[in-house]
Amino acid sequence: MWAESQLAEIELLTSMFPTREELELTDQLALAELRDYVEGSASTDVILSCAYPSEYPSVMPEITVRCGGLSRAQQTQIHADLNAFLMENCQGEVCVLSAVDWVKDNLQLFISRSLSAAPAPVKESSSPRSEEVFSRLWIYSHHIYNKTKRKNILEWSKELGLSGFSMPGKPGIVCVEGPQSACEEFWSRVKVLTWKKIMIRHREDIPLDRQGEDSRTVESIDSLRKFTGFEEAMFDPHGNRGNHMDLGQLYQFLNEKGCCDVFQIYFGIEGR
């Protein structure tokens, strides 16, 4: 929005004062970049993807919106707002056309916010640095079937430097561990997807000593990890749809990682 106004004013001035003696633009490269930015933002590509569950429309579809003009946080927000709109207005009804109309009506607002938002200056502070915290989140979902969600879980955990695992099927389990800020970012992305039920069943937060150098903190985070990397774990899938896992094998897996106490938190029984 601001960039368009700036370019419009420059073009007005150049039309009023066409000769170099009347008006001289000293940075033609900046002007070219401004024009490219405005023209590019006017034709921003938007991709709306929809995965239909077999129970649609009684169950909401998984709709994702991707736009190069939006930051990751803004894409998360527009996805959350879209889902809230659909849940309120289209529950139990066909809704994809309504989703397309909503995106067309609201996308420009998010793009305008993106153009007008400026990063806050970083101020030097003599106060002590905030305490670093290692976190481990144990997430429970009624089920995890959708391939797009499973792909997102794997990609986001890798992007954020988190270790852990995900178990698809019914129920679905996700464990992520690493810096608390990264875990919270992962949860903020996952929870806004369309779920029948999802929650953090249990969490572990361990403050780290920030007296030493940054390298010492990194070593402390890595020393607290119980998983190496992030993987999708399958435990002898069975059932009519192959969506149930062998919980005995899950218990053994958790036991090997030193996390067997979480099994009782999830299922209310002691594993063996």
UniProtKB/TrEMBL annotation:
InterPro entries xref list: Phi-like, Prp3_C, RWD_dom, RWDD2A-B_C, UBQ-conjugating_enzyme/RWD
Domain named RWD: residues: 8-110
Protein known as: RWD domain containing 2B
Entry-linked Pfam families: Prp3_C, RWD
Lineage: Eukaryota, Metazoa, Chordata, Craniata, Vertebrata
